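Review form for a predicted model. The reviewer records the input and the model, then writes brief findings.
Reviewer: anonymous (R2)
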Amino acid sequence: MDTQHNAPDGRAGVPGGAGRGALDGLRVADFSRVLAGPYATMLLADLGADVVKVERPGIGDDTRSWHPPADHDGTSTYFLGVNRNKRSVVLDLTTDAGVEQARALVAESDVLVENFRPGTMERLGLGPRELRALHPGLIYCSISGFGSGGGAEIPGYDLLVQAVGGLMSVTGDAAGEPVKAGVALVDVVTGLHASLGILAALRHRDATGEGQRVEVNLLGSLLSAMVNQASAFAVAGVVPGRMGNAHPSIAPYETFPAADRPIALAVGNDRQFAALAEVVGDPGLAADHRFRTNADRVAHRAALRDILTQRLRSAGADHWSAVLLAAGVPAGPVNTLDEAFAFAHKLGLPGIVDIPAAPADTAAGAQGSASRQVASPIALSGTPARYLLPPPRLGQHTAEILHRLADHVSAPNEAAT
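Model under review:
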């Protein structure tokens, strides 16, 4: 498994990664925690934004303690996975001094991101109406579980949203129980929607000087992300159910047992199906009246599965993947995560990058740590993603940031460390 090389100045990234980022000059006050918000702000940070992560005294982001697994310092890999390229400041928002410091931080920022339960920021005196009155150009992004209306009091946890939002109803075997996705997929999709909304609002501000509020919620993001399944209901009134790894509209588009492990076939057209039939040694399948078109194959899915299973069990998944891909048939083994990273490396994709400890930590004699990170999936030819800072220790940059804000606040935050 390979990693990207360090830039000449010691900062990690692609060659030239120490240059300008696409979002250089953008300042983000990040009041979010757990996943959807931190994922959105990490995407912005990778592209050059200066993200200041506001954390609670002594506790910080909840995910700091979500382990195992953890790194050698005891910080959870969950936290480390979505908080690189950020600086951490501890503010006690239960005190007037902490709120005043937060307001000073927002005053110098372009974007605020928060995912408290709706109404919390307003009670703290940090609501969108109040802050945008002081800072008309502010982009204020709120992320919630179920919106700020009737669902304001429902906790926004990914598992809950997968359940009530319908995703679990279409995930799992038909005869089995509903199953969640293997990662907090709804949080990730919502983070993507948040970052897209922020960039759209910034584009509008560039043209008009006007900031605005961006609101996204987990339930709305999931319903949008259900795409064809949601459209089947919205347009045709079809309520889909669980089909295991099969697809409601395409066949064969599922996993099959090979001699050693499962293989996925994603046959999307008649040409690919004819090539599949040739490779598995049964060219007549393409002319069989049950399988001539995709609609025919969907109607006779069970019979087709039986035939293909018998053929594919004669060799291993890697063999079939190689010969099918050579014939233009989308196919691949069901990899474990280590195999998936190895596959990305084989294809020349970055996969994993190493971020060294921040130079300031070394100079101060602090316990700075290098960090292995999953590379950004966004490739920009002129302003590529940069990996300048490892995920911060709790409050690592508090003194630095509060010193900068000192002229704008009347009292220090005694709880900050």
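Findings: The longest strand covers residues 50-55.
Further findings: The longest helix spans residues 185-208.
Recommendation: see findings above.
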